[in-house]
Amino acid sequence: MYSWANHGWETTVSTVLAGPWLLALVTNHHAKRSILVSVGPLHLRTESYPSLVITIAALAQVAVLPLLGAAADHRRSVERWLAVACVGGSAIAVAFAATSGGDYVAAGILMLAGSLTYGASNVLYNSLLPALAAPEERDALSSRGFAYGYLGGGLLLALNLALLLAHHAIGLDKSTAVRICFVSAGLWWAGFGLWSLRMLPPPRELPALADRMSARARLADAVRLLAQRPHTRRYLIAYLLFSDAISAVIGLSSTFITHELFGDSASKAATFLFALILLIQFVAMGGAVLAARIAARIGAQRAILASLTVWCLLILYTYLELHSKLQAVAVGIAIGIVLGGSQALARSLWSQLVPVGQEATYFGLYEVANEGTSWAAPLLFTIVVNATGSFRQAILSLLVLFIAGGVLLALTDLDAGLREARPE
C-alpha cells in the first residue's frame, strides 16, 4: 500500500505534469527559444530547462541516496524516516500548486527536492522487503507491491485526467485544474502512505556494529565489501544497464510517438499519450502478478532474462514496423506486461544479496542504479539523434544496454552471491 501511495507522485507529478508545468512557467517569463542563461560557449534555452532540472535531480541522487541508506541503517530509523519522506513529499507536491507566473526557479527547486524525497522514499521502502518476507516469499511480495503501485498511480492519474478533460464543464480554468492535480498527488501520498506505515510490524533489531559506525564509514564499508563480492557487484551492474534502458524507453516513448505519429505536435498527441500511459499502468499491474507466477516456476533470474528478451524484440519491432497508433497501443500493452515483472523481480533478487543489517545501505546503492543513472540512456539517445537525425536509430541504440545487462545477469551466479552475503 505504500507503493500505491507514492506512485501518485511518480505518475501524476513526475511523469505527466512536472515537465510541462516547468516549461509553462519558464516560457511565461522568457520568450520561447530564447537563451535562459549562458556560461561561456554553453547556452541553455528555455525549452531545455525541465530536462536540466531532471538531470540535476538524477545526479543529486547519486550523492545523497547511498549516504541516506547508510544513515538509516546506522540509526535504526527506517520506518520513522520513511514517514518523514512521506509527509515531506506530500508537502512538496502541494507546494507545486502555489507556483505561478515566472516562478520557474522555485518550481525547479521543488522538483529537485521532490525527486530526492521520492528516491529516498524508495530506498527506505525497498529496504523493508527482507524484514517483511522470507527469501522464498520475496518474489511474490515484491510483485504485489509493484502491482499495487501501478494500480494506485493509475487510478489517481485517471481521476486527474478526467478533471483536466472536464475542467470547463465544472467551471475551472485549466491552470486551477492542474493545481488541484498537484494537491491530489500530495494528499494521496500522505494519506495512504501514513496509513500503510501504521500496519508495519515492530522494527527488527540491527547488529550492534551498526551503532558504532558513522553513515559515511558504513557506506564506505559497504562499497568495499561490494568490491570483494564479484557476483553481487555483477548483478548490480547488470541491473544498472537494463534498468536504465527500461527507464529510457518509458521516458522517451512519448517523444518518439509524438515525432513519428503526430509530426511533432504535442497538442495532437496529448490525449493519445494520456490514454496510452493509463493503459500501460493497468497492464503493468497484471504483468507484475504474472511475473511472480512465472518466477515461481522457472526462477526469478530466468524470468528476468525472458523479460529482457521480450524488451529486445519490442525494440526491434518499434524500429522496423511501428507506423500507426494501433501498433503503438499493441507495443504499449506488451511493455506493460514485461515492465512490472522486470522491476519487481529485480528488486526481490537484490534483496537476496543484501547482508543482514545493511538493508537500507545496499538499497541506497540499488536506488542509485535505478534512478541516479537515469541520465545515461537518454544521453545515448540524444547522441544518436544528433548523429543520425533518426528517432528510430536512437531507439535501436538502446538494444546495447538491454543485451549487455542480460549477458551480465546470465553470468551472475546467484547461489554464489547468496554465499557472499551470508557466508555463515
- Find the CATH superfamily: MFS general substrate transporter like domains
* Oligomeric category: single chain
| Straight-line distance between termini | 34 Å
Number of helices: 17
DSSP strand content: under 5%
What class would the helix/strand composition place it in?
Answer: mainly alpha
Strand count, sense and barrel status of the largest sheet are:
2 strands, antiparallel
| General shape | globular
Low-confidence stretches: 206-211
CATH topology: Growth Hormone, Chain: A
At the first level of CATH, the class is Mainly Alpha
| Average pLDDT over all residues | 81
Total beta strand runs: 2
Question: Mind telling me which CATH architecture this is?
Answer: Up-down Bundle
CA gyration radius, whole angstroms:
21 Å
- Main sheet: which strands, in order across? 1-2
Q: Into how many domains do the coordinates divide?
A: 1
Give the proportion of residues in helices.
Answer: over 70%
Q: How would you spell out the order of helices and strands?
A: HEEHHHHHHHHHHHHHHHH
